[in-house]
């Protein structure tokens, strides 16, 4: 333990602790024993205070020591918590007080349970003694029953209360004679612990021997008392359930303390609103087991001009303004069933569970603006406060909690850029562009050196036999602030800034090394590797040399590599990019046109390109399920593209295949390969290796379901 201010704090704590323990029960303790207890407790508390990060265990042990020394008065616990709040652990008195209280409560519970077990054993002993000497055993049981510190009640299996002791009467605020003759069901609390009465039914029917719950009851005066309840079943000589014995410990003070500590942990101390932790807990709960088609909405709120108030009028005035704003938002939105939380600073968020669509989310945003339309009186100042709101409304199955909050936050800044004092609705394209711009400008230049990129691989399946024909390498970015980003969120901007060159080179090196490893392990069973080639890469004169070096260093056979280019890579027969493409083919690498049908689609240029494959854009297959479009015409277009590719001698792959019926229809029209969520989402290299091995087990049948052949996962939940 260091010298200085911390040591002074320790002396103060020891002095207050000695004064606390010297009261009440402490007056009957020998001074030497009491001094030792004070020294031991304060040493443990100081150990927790000084730990970085905070370690609750020494503080919990200090609480247990007091119970072991018979300091069990709830008033002493309350005063101890107040003292510990004045001696914070690294800035948080609630942490130190909470850990101490938890240790005290756990030790008291353990002690109580030991007493309860002793009573239960005594009751059981008394029952046996009745068989040998009824009067003597009954006298002993009666003495134990009446003098016990915890409440005891005896009832029959029909639920009638036969007798209670004085302690139980005190818990319920009624005399023993008032309790006798009542039914157990008369004491039911409407907010009873789930499962209590199901367990009680099992007990009186004889299918279980005892039950134990923390549960509330109503006292005679209407107040609620919280108890720790243990009920045991007493059988007759034939094993038939005869009586039930209930033992109740009054834990109301402990329960209320825990509730206060829980409230402090989940609510903003300034405004009283749920805090960031409570908001994310509620949001994540929506994603645990959502109903099919479940939707939700977010309104991300930021006050306009709040910094000016803080800087000009002071932080105290700013805090009063935040409190007033929180009150208005809660009053306007809570009656609608929406959660209002403060995330920090002048940022608030509104969560709409079971949202009925964009209109309801927009209505909530308008309610926010309306609630803040009138000036707020703070002291003698009339402060005009406005807000900008980012609105997001989505199906739960299409996103994740983290992605949803990021999207709402970025949408908020679009609202601020548009002029403030308004709401803006989430736009997926704008969101992707904003994420991309931010990610590239802030982090991407050093992300490669930091090892933040990784590659997943998506299967391409041979439709003729369901075998794994190839895998496409898809780069991901594990961004420390934004989470895992897909290529659509950063590759476009990387190409604009030139950062695509080192990134593309890294992807080729990593993917070729992985493919070479599969070839070494599985031989001819290893799939072909497909890697996307950005336009700027294809136009780089050093591409052929780079790829030749990579193939030599990794040992990958060129025939095992196919590079995918877009239609915009080459804009005419004289384009310089054609030289690089021919140079790649001369190395033995094959080329394929990716997303065919979304670019210029000049068939003459397609004929002149040195490509051996063509991938039909996923939008063609996706449009086949759009009720607003002609499905029959869509299938004819796809069939025409397959025929065109085969006429040019190209292998054709259909992207975006989502279901079995589409896969079968594509197979019947002669499509060679297919790719999409029906066959599997992008996965880690180890999963691909497992699928290769399983697909080639000797006992595997020749004809299997296409999706099952590669172990596909059918559920797709893309991030926003």
Task: List the SSEs and their pairings.
Layout: H1 5-21, H2 31-50, H3 57-68, H4 74-85, H5 93-132, H6 134-147, E1 151-156, E2 161-164, H7 166-172, H8 176-179, H9 196-205, E3 210-218, E4 224-235, E5 241-250, H10 252-266, H11 276-286, E6 295-304, H12 306-313, H13 315-333, E7 339-344, E8 347-353, H14 358-371, E9 376-378, E10 381-383, E11 386-395, H15 401-417, E12 423-425, H16 428-442, H17 444-450, E13 453-462, E14 468-479, E15 483-485, H18 491-497, H19 500-522, E16 528-532, H20 535-538, H21 543-554, E17 561-565, H22 577-586, E18 590-596, H23 603-608, E19 613-616, H24 618-623, H25 631-647, E20 651-654, H26 660-668, E21 673-674, H27 685-695, H28 706-709
Parallel strand pairs: 11-12, 14-16, 16-17, 17-18, 18-19, 19-20, 20-21
Antiparallel strand pairs: 1-2, 1-5, 3-4, 4-5, 6-8, 6-11, 7-8, 9-10, 13-14, 13-21, 14-15
Structural description of this entry:
It is built from 28 helices and 21 strands. The protein has 720 residues and is of the alpha/beta class. Strands 13-14-16-17-18-19-20-21 form an eight-stranded mixed barrel, surrounded by six helices. Strands 2-1-5-4-3 form a five-stranded antiparallel β-sheet, sandwiched between helices. α4 runs antiparallel to α5 and α5 packs antiparallel against α10. InterPro entries: Biofilm_reg_signaling, EAL_dom, EAL_sf, GGDEF_dom, Nucleotide_cyclase, PAC, PAS, PAS-assoc_C. It comes from Kitasatospora paranensis. This is Bifunctional diguanylate cyclase/phosphodiesterase. Pfam families: EAL, GGDEF, PAS_9.
């Amino acid at each position: 333990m260091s010298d200085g201010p911390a040591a002074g704090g320790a002396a103060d704590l020891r002095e207050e602790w000695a004064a606390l323990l010297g009261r009440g029960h402490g007056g009957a303790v020998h001074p030497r024993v009491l001094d030792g207890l004070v020294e031991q407790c304060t040493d443990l508390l100081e150990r927790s205070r000084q730990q970085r990060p905070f370690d609750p265990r020494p503080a919990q042990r200090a609480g247990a020591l007091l119970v072991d020394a018979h300091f069990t008065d709830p008033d002493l616990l309350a005063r101890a918590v107040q003292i510990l709040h004045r001696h914070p652990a690294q800035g948080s008195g609630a942490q130190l007080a909470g850990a101490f209280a938890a240790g005290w409560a756990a030790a008291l519970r353990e002690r109580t349970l030991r007493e309860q077990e002793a009573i239960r054993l005594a009751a059981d002993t008394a029952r046996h003694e009745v068989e040998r000497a009824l009067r003597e055993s009954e006298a002993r049981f009666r003495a134990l029953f009446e003098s016990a510190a915890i409440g005891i009640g005896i009832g029959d299996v029909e639920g009638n209360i036969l007798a209670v002791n004085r302690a139980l009467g005190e818990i319920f605020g009624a005399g023993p004679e008032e309790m006798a003759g009542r039914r157990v069901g008369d004491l039911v609390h409407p907010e009873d612990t789930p499962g209590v009465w199901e367990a009680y039914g099992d007990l009186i029917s004889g299918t279980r021997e005892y039950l134990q719950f923390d549960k509330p009851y109503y006292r005679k005066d209407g107040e609620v008392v919280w108890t720790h309840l243990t009920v045991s079943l007493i059988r007759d000589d034939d094993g038939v359930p005869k009586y039930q014995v209930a033992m109740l410990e009054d834990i109301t003070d402990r329960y209320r303390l825990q509730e206060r500590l829980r409230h402090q942990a989940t609510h903003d101390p300034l405004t009283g609103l749920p805090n960031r932790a409570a908001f994310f807990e509620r949001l994540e709960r929506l994603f645990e087991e959502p109903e099919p088609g479940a939707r939700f909405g977010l309104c991300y709120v930021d006050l306009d001009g709040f910094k000016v108030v803080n800087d000009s009028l002071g932080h105290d005035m700013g805090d009063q303004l935040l409190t007033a704003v929180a009150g208005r938002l809660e009053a306007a939105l809570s009656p609608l069933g929406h959660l209002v939380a403060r995330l920090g600073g002048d940022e608030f968020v509104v969560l709409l569970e079971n949202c009925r669509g964009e209109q309801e989310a927009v209505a909530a945003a308008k309610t926010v603006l309306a609630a803040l339309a009138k000036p707020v009186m703070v002291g003698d100042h009339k402060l005009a406060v406005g807000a900008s709101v980012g609105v997001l409304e989505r199906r739960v199955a299409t996103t994740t909690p983290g992605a949803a909050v990021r999207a709402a936050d970025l949408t908020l800044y679009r609202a601020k850029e548009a002029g403030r004092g308004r709401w803006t609705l989430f736009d997926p394209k704008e969101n992707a562009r904003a994420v991309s711009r931010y990610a590239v400008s802030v982090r991407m230049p050093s992300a490669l050196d930091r090892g933040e990129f990784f590659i997943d691989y998506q299967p391409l399946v041979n439709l003729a036999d369901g075998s794994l024909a190839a895998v496409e390498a898809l780069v991901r970015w594990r961004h420390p602030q934004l989470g895992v980003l897909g290529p659509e969120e950063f590759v476009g901007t990387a190409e604009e800034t030139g950062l695509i060159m080192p990134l593309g080179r890294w992807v080729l090196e990593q993917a070729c090394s992985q493919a070479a490893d599969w070839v070494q392990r599985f031989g001819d069973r290893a799939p072909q590797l497909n890697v996307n080639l950005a336009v700027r890469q294809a136009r780089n004169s050093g591409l052929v040399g780079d790829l030749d070096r990579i193939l030599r260093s990794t040992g990958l056979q060129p025939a095992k590599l196919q590079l995918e280019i877009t239609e915009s890579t080459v804009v005419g027969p004289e384009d310089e990019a054609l030289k690089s493409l021919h140079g790649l083919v001369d190395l033995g690498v094959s080329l394929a046109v990716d997303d065919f049908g979304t670019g210029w689609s000049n068939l003459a240029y397609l004929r002149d390109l040195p490509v051996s494959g063509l991938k039909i854009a996923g939008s063609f297959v996706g449009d086949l399920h759009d009720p607003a479009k002609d499905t029959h015409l869509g299938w004819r277009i796809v069939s025409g593209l397959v025929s065109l590719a085969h006429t040019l001698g190209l292998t054709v792959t259909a992207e975006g295949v989502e279901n079995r019926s589409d896969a079968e229809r594509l197979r019947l029209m002669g499509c060679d390969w297919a790719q999409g969520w029906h066959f599997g989402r992008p996965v880690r290299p180890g999963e691909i290796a497992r699928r290769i091995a399983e697909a080639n087990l000797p006992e595997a049948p020749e004809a299997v379901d296409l999706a099952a052949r590669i172990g596909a996962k059918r559920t797709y939940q893309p991030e926003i």
